[in-house]
Amino acid sequence: MPPEAPTAVPQAGVDRRNYRLGLVNGISFTIGESISSPTLVLSLLVRQLGGSLTLVGLMPVIQNVGYLLPQLLVAGRVQAMTHRLPLYRQAGIIRLVAQAALVLAILSAVIFPPEIALVLIIACYTIFNFGGGITTISFQEVVAKVIPLRRRGTFFGTRQLVGGLLAFALGGTLVRWVLGSESPLLFPYNFALLSVISLVGFIIGIGSFALVHEPASQQVGPRTGFVAVLRRAPAILRANRNYRLFIVARLLLRAGQIAEPFYIIYATEALGLSAGVAGVFISIWALAGALSNIVWGRIADRRGNRRLLLLASCLSASAPLLMIGGPALLLALNAPATLLIVALGFVFLLIGAGTDGIMIAAMTYIIEVSPDDERATYLGVANTILGMGAVLPILGSWLISTLGFQPTFAIGAVLALCGLFVVSRLQELRQF
Questions:
Q1: pLDDT per residue over 246-266, tens digit each?
Q2: How far apart are CA 417 and CA 17, in angstroms?
Q3: Quick one: pLDDT at residue 219?
Q4: Whole-prediction pTM value?
Q5: In a designed cystine with 192, which of 43, 106, 364, 429 is the match (CB 3.0 to 4.6 A)?
């Protein structure tokens, strides 16, 4: 008798496995990125190596630009692929190698002058994040195929909920202990340890998503080069009003975060708080973001991404408004350090909840507004434009050096409110 054909795995089982692997991916990355946060942890690393405020502002710029700009370079190639996971795996390996090299770059501060160590750190961090730009467009394409439309809000919300809770429990505690005054590790070994722990999270995250079963695409677009995609961009922007408004809104909301990398510098250098307070703010940021996802995922699935983007943008815009005078007023009144930490903690609570909500809404809205056969091009164009706006924190460093902290916080607040107005003009794409 001929051997029996292997029993096919039911599609429902494949879908559940893909869903779980996607959750593990998001949870692991959330933990890894919280422990090596460019806004809190890497900013302090740069300052302790003697880096300027411009370099402090450069760290989140590298992260945002790296995640966004490379997508236009690969979009024309990706949309012609029937399977996108192979590209994700290749870029994922590059990212892991770069993160491992970052650990060595931090340790090089023991033997090299700080200037050389800073160059090595920035180079490794740049490679890591530019690799992220390639994995991101592949990731979004695969998610569009394997996660049903009505479950995407819950999918992203659950990733950020569980990841945020673990980042609160593990990440904030570790950062507070490792960077605090009672840490058993001296500089730079304390920062190197945090980078090693982040590396473990990234290995688990990339490895889990690499195991997703990706079906072949039913619709693929033509393979086009970078120049052709670039020429097509103006027509795409003119033809799709919601797509255009979405990009403008995201640019303005991102511009509203112009001073965000300097909140921790303001706390330590202007308010006199210790570096270990970064761990407290990471915990608050992570917990607020995590718990908000209980609500955000439901709103995205049941009320739509436009509603979610509007609510989350309100919270995000409130953060620079509170930074304008709140902590400075408490300092002028000789408030104790605990009260200053509480006031700043509330700011990071708003940032955490708002950022997670915007992330869920943006990831799902852009997928919905893009046609299937040109989704990669639409994603690439949008994220490349957003990547250009990601250099604004460098402008923030110049504004702080020229005008001071408070005027820069005010400029961020105005830009965020403009972004909120544009969000209000978006249309909901689903029928409820």
A1: 889 988 988 888 888 788 788
A2: 41
A3: 66
A4: 0.67
A5: 106
